[in-house]
């Protein structure tokens, strides 16, 4: 029997495109996907649990992990580090489960550099006008900040060429269907099957 490793899927795209919404809907349908648990230096909040919400580390511990190359990506927000632990991802993949990571574009580029065998999916807005409406509808940001976010989004859209697939998020159900199709097709890629088959022949 072919013992298939899991695949790392990275969903990314500009702020306001609906990454979180697509990811939540995907996970409500697929119980065989593992969500990549992030690591952070921020304090644990009431109701949160180690290894469920985050892996909690001190600043020193986190910085040692960065130096040792133990993070697939990391960033700093409001004096706290956040990152994706390599060991957790690799262990879960070896157990045969797919790992799904929802992340900003800059983080996705770090993951691509550190784990190029991942599958990178870019979630694309139906139009820049629609993206602007979504950012404005949040109602949490000033006009200046909305313009900054839009400019950043345009720069991130320019990085689309670094991705394997592009999914337009004009309808959440349709977008999730496409992501599920990508997951299925990646497991059927000739290169993956051939590699597993050759390994099986060696073992026999």
Could you give a short description of this structure?
One of its GO terms (molecular function) is GMP kinase activity. The chain has 204 residues and is an alpha/beta fold.
Could you outline the blueprint of secondary structure elements for this entry?
Blueprint: E1 8-12, H1 19-29, E2 33-35, E3 39-40, E4 55-56, H2 59-67, E5 71-77, E6 80-85, H3 86-94, E7 98-103, H4 105-114, E8 119-124, H5 128-137, H6 143-157, E9 165-168, H7 172-187, H8 190-203
Parallel strand pairs: 1-7, 1-8, 2-7, 3-4, 8-9
Antiparallel strand pairs: 3-6, 5-6
Helix pairs in contact: 1-7, 5-6
Family: Belongs to the guanylate kinase family.
Pfam family, one: Guanylate_kin
Domain Guanylate kinase-like: 6-184
Explained architecture:
The mean pLDDT is 88. Helix 5 (128-137) runs antiparallel to helix 6. The radius of gyration is 18 Å and the shape is globular. The N and C termini lie close together (11 Å). Strands 2-7-1-8-9 form a 5-stranded parallel β-sheet, with helices on both faces. The chain has 8 helices and 9 strands. The chain is an alpha/beta fold. Helix content is 46%, strand content 20%. Strand 5 (71-77) and strand 6 (80-85) form a beta hairpin. It has a domain at 8-36 and 97-203: P-loop containing nucleotide triphosphate hydrolases (Rossmann fold).
Strand order of the largest sheet: 2-7-1-8-9
* Overall shape: globular
Rounded average pLDDT: 88
DSSP E strands, number: 9
What name does the CATH topology of the domain at 8-36 and 97-203 carry? Rossmann fold
What is the CATH superfamily of the domain at 8-36 and 97-203?
Answer: P-loop containing nucleotide triphosphate hydrolases
Order of helices and strands: EHEEEHEEHEHEHHEHH
Gyration radius over CA: 18 Å
Largest sheet, strands/sense/barrel: 5 strands, parallel
Name of the level-1 CATH class of the domain at 8-36 and 97-203:
Alpha Beta
Number of contiguous helices: 8
Distance between the termini: 11 Å
The percentage helix is: 40-55%
**CATH-derived architecture of the domain at 8-36 and 97-203:** 3-Layer(aba) Sandwich
EC number: 2.7.4.8
Enzyme class: transferase
Subcellular location: Cytoplasm
Binding site for ATP: 13-20
């Amino acid at each position: 029997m072919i013992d298939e490793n899991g695949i790392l899927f990275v969903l990314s795209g500009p702020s306001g495109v609906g990454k979180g919404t697509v990811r939540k809907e995907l996970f409500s349908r697929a119980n065989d996907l593992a969500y990549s648990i992030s690591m952070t230096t921020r304090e644990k909040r009431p109701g949160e649990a180690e290894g469920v919400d985050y892996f909690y580390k001190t600043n020193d511990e986190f910085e040692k992990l960065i130096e040792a190359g133990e993070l697939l990506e990391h960033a700093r927000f409001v004096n706290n580090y956040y990152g994706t632990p390599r060991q957790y991802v690799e262990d879960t993949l070896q157990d045969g489960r797919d790992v799904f990571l929802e992340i900003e574009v800059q983080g996705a580029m770090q993951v691509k550099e550190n784990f190029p065998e991942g599958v990178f999916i870019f979630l694309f807005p139906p139009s820049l006008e629609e993206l602007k409406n979504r950012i404005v509808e949040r109602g949490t940001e000033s006009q200046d900040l909305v313009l900054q976010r839009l400019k950043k989004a345009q720069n991130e859209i320019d990085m689309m060429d670094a991705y394997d697939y592009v999914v337009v998020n004009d309808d959440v159900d349709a977008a999730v269907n496409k992501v599920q199709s990508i997951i299925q097709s990646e497991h059927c890629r000739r290169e993956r099957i051939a590699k597993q088959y050759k390994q099986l022949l060696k073992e026999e």
